[in-house]
Amino acid sequence: MELVKNPPNEYLIDFLQGLLEEAETGELQGIAVVTSMTGNATGNGWAGDVSVMASIGEMEVLKRDFIDLMVDLRVEVL
Fold first, then answer.
1. Handedness of CA 9, 49, 20, 61 (dihedral sign)
2. What is the pLDDT of residues 8-53, one digit of tens each?
């Protein structure tokens, strides 16, 4: 079974290029990521000087944003 090849996500490319520019100027010192790949594969990781406590707080904010998105999508489907 062959995975469907998705076209490049231009928004994602622009977002990552912006982060790369911030890293190249020294503004961005660390990053924690969650990835979503073709075929629903997911992953996570971090690089650089990541402030652990602040990053955990930001992950909780992101988690809440994802939950809100799913609730919004569920309401629209009903």
1. positive
2. 999 999 999 999 999 999 999 999 999 999 888 999 999 999 899 9
Answering whether pTM is above 0.90, one says no
Give the start-end residues of each E strand in the chain. Answer: 30-36, 42-48
Residues 6 or more apart in contact with residue 46 via CB below 8 angstroms:
30, 31, 32, 33, 55
By C-alpha distance, which of 26, 28, 2 is closest to 16? Answer: 28
Q: Which two tokens stand for residue 32?
A: 């924690």
Closest CA to 54 of 18, 20, 30: 30
CA distances from 43 to 21, 49, 66, 74 (A): 23, 20, 16, 25
